[in-house]
Task: inverse folding
């Protein structure tokens, strides 16, 4: 086709393209073979979107349709979830400023939809930053909780599944502890005295209980009760403590004596003096027996020497009511009615540490079997706090207000948990997880202060005693091999028997 023919047809075609390569689809049937010029289209057969099948040559076999552009549907694009920066042009005063603002709203509405275009009552645009405030999170995607989950998300579980980001291990459910004791023993004449220590459980599974002037032994495997001794009408039992091997037991008396008995043969081995008044607390190390008294002194006894005691520790200003050796026998912790917690070593005559944060008597003391130099203590009615100490430097690591008088503390050897017994005003038993100090369980049942506490040799069962003259056995800790929930069925059948 020459230039004259192109001018006659009214179509300015590029060189190399014939008129037959252009087809016009009217939408009412097959494409017309006639060539219609674009200068005078028929109003009934032409529309702006009827041009199709534009090919480069007549011999092309491509049948795919194409158009000039793609206009997406912005109503489903969730553009409002992107923090687009809002940088309005400078607003002019008067009519020009109002026109500029109206134009901006209209432009936003056309580009992003009606929900994105109108201003909020605060004056800003919905989905955008306030006018004039810099948006530092440009193009940062915000979670759209109102819309449906995207089909292209990384997880079929939705946006909150967490699989697309760092996986978080769900917290383990709290261990279930039976709320009721599995056995109850009657303990007539069990004294309601905060400063006494009348219950202890040996490593050979024998429970010793001081009732009045007598000491009774209860064998856990057979429930057999044996009367160990009777101090007579003029004396009374103030404390009992087994050796670590469980063969011998020491007894502190109201007259200030310390007796050592053979628990298997029920024979007295030795009697040692030195205290002026009652001996309310005893503690064994591997070789040394320590005794605390109302006379404010701590005596160190060695059964290998003939003298009553080998040393005297003076530091408390009131009755000594708490006494515990560390597991490595290097340190001795003592608590008194003077609100002091003192830490001694094997050879010092003066305390290494004087911890005075408690505001009431310190009877409850326990050393951690899981971490060296970690000591826990509890205060009386005016204090109500359990405090954790680093005995290397004397720093208080943590503390918790229990709301009640702290009577006893014992650390589990199976798991990093401890149990505390309480008096006024709730008389509860509490199991704590360390170091979070979260409560594992709170047990109730005693009607008076829970003054006495001992733990079974396997570390799973505790026995508590109170002035209500009952001993209650609780399954609170798991076994060493199985950290699962403690079974409610215990070693003994549920029932109430008498210890004497």
Result:
């Amino acid at each position: 086709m020459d230039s004259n023919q192109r001018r006659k047809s009214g179509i300015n075609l590029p060189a190399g393209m014939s008129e037959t390569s252009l087809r016009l689809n009217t939408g009412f049937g097959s494409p017309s073979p006639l060539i219609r010029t674009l200068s005078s289209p028929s109003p009934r057969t032409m529309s702006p979107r009827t041009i199709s099948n534009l090919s480069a040559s007549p011999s092309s076999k491509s049948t795919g349709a194409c158009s000039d552009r793609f206009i997406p549907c912005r109503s489903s694009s969730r553009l409002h979830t992107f923090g687009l920066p809002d940088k309005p042009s400078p607003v002019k005063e008067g009519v020009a400023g109002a026109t500029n603002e109206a134009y901006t709203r209209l432009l936003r509405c056309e580009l992003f939809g009606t929900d994105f275009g109108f201003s909020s009552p605060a004056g800003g645009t919905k989905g955008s930053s306030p006018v004039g405030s810099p948006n530092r999170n440009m193009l940062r995607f915000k979670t759209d909780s109102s819309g449906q989950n995207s089909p292209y998300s990384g997880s079929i579980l939705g946006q909150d599944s967490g699989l697309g980001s760092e996986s978080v291990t769900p917290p383990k459910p709290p261990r279930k502890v039976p709320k009721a004791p599995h056995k109850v023993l009657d303990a007539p004449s069990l004294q309601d005295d905060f400063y006494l220590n009348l219950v202890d459980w040996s490593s050979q599974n024998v429970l010793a209980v001081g009732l009045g002037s007598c000491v009774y032994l209860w064998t856990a495997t057979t429930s057999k009760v044996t009367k160990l001794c009777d101090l007579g009408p003029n004396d009374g039992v103030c404390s009992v403590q087994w050796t670590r091997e469980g063969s011998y037991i020491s007894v502190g008396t109201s007259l200030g004596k310390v007796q050592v008995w053979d628990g298997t043969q029920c024979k007295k081995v030795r009697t040692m003096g030195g205290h002026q008044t009652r001996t309310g607390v005893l503690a064994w190390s591997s070789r040394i027996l320590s005794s605390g008294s109302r006379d404010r002194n701590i005596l160190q006894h060695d059964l290998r020497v003939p003298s009553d005691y080998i040393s005297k520790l003076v530091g408390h200003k009131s009755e000594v009511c708490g006494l515990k050796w560390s597991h490595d026998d290097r340190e001795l912790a003592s608590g008194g009615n003077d609100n002091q917690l003192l830490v001694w070593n094997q050879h010092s005559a003066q305390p290494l540490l004087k911890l005075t944060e408690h505001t009431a008597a310190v009877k409850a003391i326990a050393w951690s079997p899981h971490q060296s130099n970690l000591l826990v203590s509890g205060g009386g009615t005016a204090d109500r706090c359990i405090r954790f100490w680093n005995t290397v430097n004397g720093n208080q690591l943590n503390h918790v207000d229990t709301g009640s008088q702290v009577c006893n503390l014992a650390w589990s050897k199976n798991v990093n948990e401890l149990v505390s017994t309480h008096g006024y005003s709730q008389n509860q038993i509490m199991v704590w997880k360390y170091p979070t100090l979260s409560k594992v369980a709170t047990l109730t049942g005693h009607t008076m202060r829970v003054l006495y506490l001992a733990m079974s040799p396997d570390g799973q069962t505790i026995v508590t005693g109170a002035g209500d003259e009952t001993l209650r056995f609780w399954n609170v800790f798991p076994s060493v091999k199985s950290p699962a929930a403690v079974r409610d069925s215990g070693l003994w059948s549920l029932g109430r028997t008498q210890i004497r």
